[in-house]
Amino acid sequence: MSLLLLLTACLLTCLGQIAQKYAVESWRGKDGGWGEKLRSPWLWLALFSLGLGLLVWLLVLQRLEVGLAYPMLSLNFVLITLVARFIFHEPVDHRHWLGVALVIGGVVLLGQHA
Question: Which of 18, 20, 19, 8 lies closest to 52 in space, CA to CA?
């Protein structure tokens, strides 16, 4: 159950980050003020996802040691890199992919203790 909550917290925070990116992309080239920006559904999805992710994270911290739980959030780095590359078509160099591989290796090692 703890690992399911941890994965849910990761996915919600990633969704929040992606929604933030879509929000600012939708603002690009618009002259509207903050009122228009605050009506962005992407912004509200980001706030909702990040808020819910925080609540789930608190449940994770009740069940797992912070020294184990927090490094597992590095999965966000992996997921966001994949989204950046394949959804937003951003360039990702070889060193970045090496970092992703190392993070995955670290998560696998930590996961063996869970």
Answer: 8
